[in-house]
Design a protein that fits this description.
Number of helices of chain B: 11
Strand content of chain A: 25-35%
Strand order of the largest sheet of chain B: 1-2
Distance between the termini of chain A: 43 Å
Structural class of chain A: alpha/beta
Largest interface: A-B, 46 and 33 residues
Number of strands of chain A: 15
Oligomer: heterodimer
Largest sheet of chain B: 2 strands, antiparallel
Helix content of chain A: 25-40%
Distance between the termini of chain B: 34 Å
Shape of chain B: elongated
Radius of gyration of chain B: 21 Å
Number of helices of chain A: 11
Structural class of chain B: mainly alpha
Shape of chain A: elongated
Amino acid sequence: MPAPRAFPNATIRPAGPNRSAAPGSAAIRATDLHKTYGTGDKAVAAVAGISLTVPAGTIFGLLGPNGAGKSTTVKMLTTLARPDSGTAEVAGVDVMRDPAGVRRRIGYVSQKPGFDPVGTGRENLVLQGRVHGLRAASARRRADALLERFGLGAAANRLLRTWSGGMQRKLDVAMGLIHQPDVLFLDEPTTGLDPEARADMWSEIATLAGDGGLTVLLTTHYLDEADRLAGHLVIIEAGRVVASGTPDELKSELHGDSVRIGLAAPDVAAKAVTVLAAADQVLEVTADGARLRARVPDGARALPGLLAALDAAAIPVVDVTVARPSLDDVYLRHAGRSFRSAPERADGAAGTTDGYRSAAASGKAVA
Amino acid sequence: MTISTVSTRMPGAPDTVTVRRTAPTAFLAHSWLLTVRSLRTLLRMPAYLAFTLVQPMIWLLLFGALFTNIARLPGFGTGSYLEYLTPGVIVMTAMFSAGWAGTTFIQDMDRGVMDRNLTSPVNRGALIAGSLAYQAVTCIVQSAIVLGVGVAAGARFPAGPADVLAVFGCAVLLAVIFAALSDAMALLLRQQEALIGLSQFLTLPLTFLSSVMMAPDLMPGWVSAVARYNPVDWAAVASRSALSGHPDWGLIAGRGGLLLAVAILMGVLATRAFRSYQRSV
């Protein structure tokens, strides 16, 4: 995996005194954004009241399953779609009152490839720079610097359609950076990449933050991606923010350990939840199909008691693991279902039918 | 036209110099950049051009052969049907080929290219103008090929360079009208199948409701009445006059003016269709 490279001429943007966003100020401030598609019976509330503040110079993650409203939120912040209600400022500019001003200050890398496959890497970058008002010579210099920075120099003059998926994705990101934006939007930057290209992309994204004060807003449905890259994140579910904080803050909300128990069959899950909830030391139990999770202060100490209780109730156990809480546990707690089981859906409607929660009997239940 | 402001984010760093343009200069600069980009694509994929010429060759060579004797009808007014048909097929080719213009927009929508464009400062009018300029250049190449094939098949035109330019001009204006319509429909329908269906639905009837194949004097009255309002007929009438050896420049300028007016109108309407598209994303 390539280490972060330093090319003196290839900073994403210069650290200068006249940047528009001062350190510590908000690069994005959105208040109560709403967006509904369709009308009448077919109306779907894709975003139903999202507010967020992204500090300048950070990587900020929007985490949620497909259809949660991440992309719609990004479309409103990038002036692609107009909010039905609510307000948003990006790089200090109101998205509704001055969309052209926002467009000059942002880079947007959508989920889908945004380059011309019949153009070369350099041609694509130069055109994008020229559209942003760079003079021909500066656009060429910037293009070459970015090609070097992303390790694409050798392929620069080959047509994009001959590039690998990972290289194409990096070029998409480079195109979003050609004009040295204040805010870069990355919509699912690693979806569809193979593991190696994904790790490579992660290390590239990680070096973007703090490079001259660039702010990155990243959407993802990969928990490990948000955990690894985002300094701050919000979890979005059915068009609403259900949790926000740093990954560590969110995980430490769930103090103790997570005991994950696999049952032989899902039909005994309800009974197992009742048994575990009554067991000693258990703070909270959740079930998702045949997978149970019990949150306990000390996993190793609680485990024998839990297994004994299940055994006494004649519930067969297939596997057991004890782990520190992950973002998946955070997601499960806030969205009421396991992240992995979240259905791929585009309807945006709330749905918690495939998982259910049972608050622990101890009274320390989740609010 | 002047550059309104030159903003430098950071003094002394040449790579950060951006030029903020007024709307008219952005329109021209971006139109130029996008036209150059598409022409480069055309040069890299010239087979596309050959593909769009298959249909007109069938019209020109098969129809030209099949209906050779039509020209003997009293009132047809010309010696050779092929000579009558060739300018009409140039005009038809312009329309049919331009009807595909919007499919590029739909590919851009299916990829992330449209989203990237619409979140960048690219001028909306330039996105349309770039598409139209590309169609115009394609149209000139196609018109020259069709004319050349007509001559090779035996058609003779007592025409000079100015007359041929007038024919190409009419074909280009007609191509611009239908390319702008196709772009607008692409932005409104956002579906390849719907766009192609609509284009097919329009182009053939418009051809038969014009004097492309049949002399005006021999058409049924209602057809020639409709043809008077049909841009395809305007272009066909003007092109035939230009190649006739005794061009009626008043008529050519009149029809050309009508074509230009409709072309500008369609370009403006197509630019407005971006609003409809953005409401749908």
